Structures are given as structure tokens and as C-alpha cells.
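#dry-run=false #mode=assembly
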Amino acid sequence: MSLVVVGTVAFDDVATPFGKADRIVGGAATYAALAASYFTSGIELVSVVGDDFPTTVLDDLKARGVDLAGLQIKAGEKSFFWAGRYHDNMNQRDTLDTQLNVLAEFDPVLPDSYKDAEFVMLGNLTPSVQMRVIEQLETRPKLIAMDTMNFWMDNTPDALNEVIAKVDMLIINDEEARQLSGEYSLVKAAEKIMAMGPKTLAIKKGEHGALLFQGDEIFFAPALPLAEVFDPTGAGDTFAGGMMGYIAKTGDISFDNLKRAIIYGSAMASFCVEKFGTERMTELDDAAIRARLQRFVDLVRFDV
Amino acid sequence: MSLVVVGTVAFDDVATPFGKADRIVGGAATYAALAASYFTSGIELVSVVGDDFPTTVLDDLKARGVDLAGLQIKAGEKSFFWAGRYHDNMNQRDTLDTQLNVLAEFDPVLPDSYKDAEFVMLGNLTPSVQMRVIEQLETRPKLIAMDTMNFWMDNTPDALNEVIAKVDMLIINDEEARQLSGEYSLVKAAEKIMAMGPKTLAIKKGEHGALLFQGDEIFFAPALPLAEVFDPTGAGDTFAGGMMGYIAKTGDISFDNLKRAIIYGSAMASFCVEKFGTERMTELDDAAIRARLQRFVDLVRFDV
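#status=ok
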């Protein structure tokens, strides 16, 4: 089934204790679309780049079945750019540079063929841009998921809350959930956030796994313990993309299937961090994904 | 089967954002013995208190089937005392006072009836005291587990490493595993620590669950997401005690049974934090424990 993925397509400079990679392709929508492309073919991208963006990368996305009719290419402008450096523990990073470029004036336009999408993933963007996408949908999707970040909680809380009220699932990290709710306990945070609109909440905890809340139900998806994490960039977007790709493939939004989906998302994220940038996300196959999923099964399988 | 539990029996002053409790009964061996007592009756305590320690508490332990022949009561001396205050997030605490008292000269003496114990839990103590216990065992137990802390890594690393080399399972937290191994990745830390002697390693991550390592096997035990944590004191000792109590009950040290045991330990720890001190650990029953275990099953149950 069709999955609209909205978010950044960008260049990143990334420095980790393992090395440095300059001007590699990144962006939330890139990671999310790549992860989802292993599960479903109906991916419809909504984003914007400058004419500095390599057409080979766009061709690769197309080859993976990603529809680029919703990707605006702005002549004479530059693509969004982010530079960051990870600390030794890989759990913290400093942003060294952010150049909005084409993103500063981004007005998303949904091609007509996208307007009846069954599933929508709104990557982290200005809330008003996320809202513009929702407004252009002609039929109510089966599930709209969104990501956001603390910057919008600080600076545009009203616009953010309006979008949150309209989505079915929020996918944010533990710090963001705490800030959004004002609660330290994630159980209490989840209650407050679900009262803001989303029926379902996924809280990402990085190397500590992820929690999925819906009503009184709680599910915990472990993270795979890894010997090496080369580059965490994009892991959260890959998680969301893998999750939404699996939901779009199955068309099933029952809580039992969302549990499976969050495990698929976690598995895809565990691949993402194994190499710099999107590299690992372009070389997987079904056998590798099945084997990784089995490791998740084995990691938490017990009987009492 | 018999389980020797070695560790502190003490008084604690505990302050949390929810309140303050002064001079309550605590100590690693107290928590571990209480937790284990729900699973096995052959618990043999090795510890020391002053004559200021309430006999009613000792009677309660006896009533729960704990053998106190190895508990020394020092006339005219005072029991070990610890005072601490938890931060708002409950994940960090400051030690406000530590009075070793009877612990300063603790020379553990194993009653003859303890010397053929099948299972031994060495709570966090001076490594030389832990070693003195091992030396008095006349038959090799099926499994010796130990806890320790960063203080001994800093101050008596050689003596600590000698004890570690003699035990079957080390149960420490993530910070301690990182310090002991010099590795940030817990997978790499586990490899190094198991090369120091212990065949099995349990790494406690507090609200983020626990990892169990043996050879190439990794198992993850989730922590139950809780709306309120009233007092984390003793949760780690309760975890270890619940785990060892279940192992002693079953007599089974296969990795599959250790997985079950770490879930039992996690379940007991999830009770411990619900009230101040040991209170919650004295009022449980089988039905409550079964129901709690089921919540752990439901928390991570999925199929792919």
C-alpha cells in the first residue's frame, strides 16, 4: 500500500570516534524511504533539494521503487546541510553547522497521485510544513505518523500541538517525550501525550530500545547490543521508516502488528549504525533482514 | 537447594523526591535474602550487625526461612549505616554518610552447615572478605555469583580480580562493567570480563533492563516501565537475590534457566522500588509474583 514519506533530503558532514565523512547524503526522508523500501514499493517522497544534489542518488532511490514526483528540485539553490560530531560514547552529539538553504522556504506540494495515500510518515520538520501536508490529503489515511524535536516544543508549541492532535502515532525519543509532557516517568509521559491526540506513541531510547504505547498496552522493543556503532546518524529515521514500511506492506494497524513493526524498525536501525551515512541501508537483502530479526527474537525469548 | 547469601545487613536513611525514611532496615544481604526467600527455603545468611539491630527484624527473616547461624551479632558495637539522597530523576543518588561500624573488621565465619552449599551469592563487600567466604567452602558450589562496585576497582583491583577469577557469574551495573573492562560497548565489555574468569555476566541497567552474557549468547531482560518509583534502594540486590533464589529453587544452571532467573530477578526488583526500604519485599505472595511475571512476558512478546 502507498506510504507518503515527508522530510529532509540533505547533505551531512559526520564525525565519529571512528572517522569522518564529508558531504554524504543524509536527511530524515532519505533514511526513512530507504528503510521502508525493503518492505513496500509504494513509497512517495515529499521533500526539496537544490540543484547541487547528485542525480545518481535520486536514481538510486527511484531504482528502489521510491516515487520522486513530490521531490522539488530548486534551480540555483543549495540543499539542506547539517554537520555534527559524536562524543566518544556515541549517545551525545554536537551540531557544528546547520544551513537550511532550500528548507527555509519549503512549501510541500503533494502530487495528485499521493493524495489518497493509506499511510503517511511526517519526518521532523517545521510543524506548519507538516500541517500543510495533512491539509492536502483528500482521504483520511489509515495511519499518519509523525516525528518532531525539542526545537519545535521550545519555539512553536501551538503549531506543534495542532499537528500532534491530527496524527495517529507520534514517534519521538525519550528526552522529547519528557519535555513534551513535563513528566519524567515515560509511563506518565505516554498518558499525557496520548491525551493530546495520538492513539499510539513510540518512544525511542537509542541503545536502550523503544517503547510502544496504546491505551493501557505497553510493548518494549529491545535494541540489539552491538560491539561497534560507527555512525548513529539516521538511526531514528531508519527506525521510523522500517516501522512504517512494514505497516504499509501489511496494511494492518492492529496493536499486535504495530509490535511486529517496531521490531522491524529496530532491526533496520541496528543495520543503519554499522556504516557511515546511508551506506549500509543500500546493500541489505531479505536474508540479512530475516537473520537480524531472528536475533531480536532470540534476544528476548524466554518462558516462565 | 541451599543458597549462601553474603553481604551487609544495615540501617539506611533514604531521601527521595517522594519522602524520607530514617533508620530503616537495609543492606544488600537483607534485600537479597528477602527476594530469594520467595523461591527457596535453604537460605543461609553470612553477615554482621551490632547489638543495636532490632531482633524483630531478625525474627522476620527467620520466619521467612532464612538461617541466621552465619550472622554475627557484635555486643557493644553498631551496625553498618548508610544515608543517601536520590535526585529527581531517581537514576542518580548522592551518598550523604557511610559509617562502617561492625563492617570495618568483618571476618566472615561460615558455620559447618553452610560449607557444602550448592549456590553462593557474594554481595558487594571488600574483595578480601568475599575471598574468605570462598576459602571456607568445602565443596565447589554449582554456581558462585558476586556483586562488586567501582570503589574496589579503584582501590583494591588486584584483590578484586582474584575473586572475580574464582566466581561463575558476575552481577554488576553498566557503569561498573565499563570501568572494569575499559570498554564502552557492553558487548566488548562482556567479552573482556568473561575472559577474567566468570563464565556468565549479568549487567544491570536500572530502568533500562539487564543483559545476560554467556559465551556468544546474549539475553536481554527488560525492566517494567513504572509510573512511580518510590525508592530504588536495594533494587540491584533484590534483582540478584531473586535471580539466585530462582536458580537455587530449580538447581538448574543452563543458560535457558538463567534467562528465566534474570526475569524473576527483574520482577522482584520491580516490586522493591514500589515502597520505601524492604517494606514491599515482605508482603508479596505467589499470586502477585506470577501476575508480575506475566507482565514481563506480555511486555516483550511478539512474533515476526
